[in-house]
Design a protein that fits this description.
Strand content: 5-15%
Structural class: alpha/beta
Number of domains: 2
Helix content: 55-70%
CATH class of the largest domain: Mainly Alpha
Number of strands: 12
Shape: elongated
Largest sheet: 6 strands, mixed
Number of helices: 20
CATH superfamily of the largest domain: ABC transporter type 1, transmembrane domain
CATH topology of the largest domain: ABC transporter transmembrane region fold
CATH architecture of the largest domain: Up-down Bundle
């Protein structure tokens, strides 16, 4: 039995089906628990109606033994039910964590807020589904049964229980109306606050260097104050309504006791029914009161479901692609258009052809769209229009993981990850269970080709030197050479480099030229965004971008004659 408020998209339902067995067992144990909850009421009836009038000591002894066994069984069943819900949370994590993380890693730049928030929202949902609110949901179907038992004790006791249940349900409905919107707004504000704070922490060195610490502290505090205000307003409202619900429940229990006493005075019920009335009314109202107390987690869970639904709705379906043969290096681009996060076009109708083994330098003024172009070619951005074809196969028809084996991409920002240098160069292949010896050999070969081998050996622990998030612990030049080695891992057919010499010194620049010569000799197709002329000797063609449009594309010397003054052409050709 899965609560209705957690039913959602197809992906979510499939994951919930995996945990359905645990919830079904938990519902079964809830039925047994609620049956056993009647035992104390029966015990009261028997004690006051049979034991006290007859002074039956043995009867009292046996009734007490039955009560103790029943309560011990009840406690054991309650523990098992809680364990089942915890196991359901584990099963849900196994079923949904991987799809959520995969979905976040293929989201476009425009959906980064959603990607950062998704895992946190999933944990909120998982905790809500295994928390007290779910216990209230599992016990709620038994409320009519307890009200029926109250009617069996006496019709007026039943009426009191029924009116109390309706009153507390009304309070729960008021709670929903009063807290839903503030809690949802607080959740969104919390997501924005956490994302901004995470970014500030990741850039803490720049923060210190620029003297931004106190300014950012105040900015984050302002964001937290807005979040806290929303959470406080919702929390105060929820606490007030929860207190009202508890007051009503306790009052009704006491009124049940008084009503039972009044009925006993008139001889309409037995003395034992006086205490049984209080117990049965309290038990009938407890699940509703528990739902009111856990309403905040229910509202947060519903908000988490909305976030995850949005995530899965914007995630392309994971279709099994036919494994294509390794490409020879031919690249074709037709009508390529790319838009930014604000929807405004960055690239317009780009089209060109690259033959296997050709080296193309992409040049143009700042803001022309060079980095956007190579990111689209490498698959780091989704084109808004047009086609990118590798050996005639459209980029979307390739399995992205398979295509990445043939494309070595070095972004302008090196983007190294937390882990060892070897892990970064090998693209964390060890996490996929590949042979350690093969990974070691291929990582060293890539570093040697990139001219980074000797530099890595000089670091503490060499290839096993552990980097922090973002590659902290290395200079910009060292990080760039390791990123180049990562791009060259296992000799990809295409190498796409975005300003590979931007942070290199003269020695590193000379080594890069040697690496490019070596790659060209191997027949590697290369596209290089470059501002420095040192890469031009290996270049076959130049592609000039201006304001997001292809201005000129052709053989290097022919393009240079059109765009460069004579002295610069001589220097470039030399």
């Amino acid at each position: 039995m899965i609560p209705d408020w957690v039913r959602s998209s197809t992906t979510m339902k499939a994951a919930l089906d995996a945990a359905r067995r645990h919830f079904a067992y938990a519902a079964g144990f809830s039925a047994l628990l609620n049956i056993l909850f009647i035992v104390p009421m029966i015990y009261m009836l028997q004690v006051y109606d049979r034991v006290v009038p007859t002074q039956g000591r043995m009867t009292l002894l046996f009734l007490t033994i039955v009560l103790a066994v029943s309560l011990a069984t009840l406690a054991a069943l309650d523990a098992i039910r809680s364990r089942l819900l915890v196991r359901a949370g584990v099963q849900l994590d196994r079923a949904l964590a991987a799809p959520i993380i995969r979905a976040t890693l293929i989201q476009p730049d425009s959906a980064q807020r959603l990607a950062r928030q998704a895992v946190r929202e999933f944990d909120i949902l998982r905790q809500a589904m295994t928390g007290p609110a779910v216990l209230g949901v599992l016990d709620a179907p038994w409320v009519p049964i307890y009200i029926l038992v109250a009617f069996l004790v006496h019709p007026w006791i039943g009426v009191l229980a029924l009116v109390g249940a309706l009153l507390i349900m009304f309070l729960a409905w008021r709670n929903e109306l009063a807290t839903r919107e503030p809690l949802q707004q607080a959740t969104l504000a919390a997501g924005r606050s956490y994302a901004a704070y995470d970014f500030s922490v990741s850039a803490s060195d720049v923060v210190r260097a620029l003297g931004l610490r106190e300014a950012l502290v105040q900015g984050h505090l302002t964001g937290r104050q807005a979040m806290m205000q929303l959470q406080t307003d919702a929390g105060i409202t929820s606490a007030r309504l929860t207190a009202e619900s508890k007051f009503v429940r306790l009052l009704l229990q006491s009124l049940a006791l008084g009503l039972g006493a009044l009925l006993a005075i008139d001889g309409l019920v037995s003395p034992g029914a006086v205490f049984a009335s209080m117990f049965i009314v309290g038990r009938a109202l407890a699940p509703i009161d528990q739902l009111v107390g856990g309403w905040r987690s229910i509202v947060q869970a519903r908000g988490a479901i909305a976030t995850l639904d949005e995530l899965f709705a914007t995630t392309p379906p994971d279709v099994a692609r036919t494994r294509l043969p390794a490409p020879t290096g031919r690249l074709g681009v037709t009508g390529l258009g790319v838009a930014g996060q604000d929807g405004k076009p960055i690239l317009y109708n780009i089209g060109f052809e690259v033959a296997p083994g050709e080296v193309v330098a992409i040049v143009g003024p700042s803001g022309a769209g060079k980095s956007t172009l190579v990111r689209a070619l490498a698959g780091a951005m989704r084109p808004a229009a047009g086609e990118v074809r590798f050996d005639g196969a459209e980029q979307r028809d390739w399995d992205s993981e398979q295509l990445a084996e043939h494309v070595g991409f070095m972004p302008q920002d090196t983007m190294l990850f937390a882990g060892t240098i070897k892990d970064n160069i090998s693209r964390f292949r060890s996490a996929l269970g590949e042979s350690a010896a093969t990974i070691d050999e291929d990582a060293v070969a890539a570093a040697t080709l990139a001219g980074a081998h000797e530099m890595i050996l000089q670091l503490p622990s060499g290839y096993d030197h552990v980097l922090q998030i973002g590659g902290k612990g290395l200079s910009a030049g060292q990080a760039q050479r390791i990123a180049l080695a990562r791009a060259l891992f296992r000799n990809p057919r295409y190498v796409i480099l975005d300003e590979p010499n931007a942070s290199l010194d003269a020695e590193g620049d000379a080594q890069l030229a040697v690496t490019l010569e070596d790659l060209k000799a191997r027949g590697t197709t290369m596209l290089i965004v470059a501002h420095r002329l040192s890469v031009l000797p290996v270049v076959d063609k130049l592609l000039v971008l201006r304001e997001g449009r292809l201005a000129i594309y052709g053989p290097r010397d022919e393009v240079l004659r059109k765009i460069a003054p004579p002295q610069r052409r001589v220097a470039a050709q030399g």
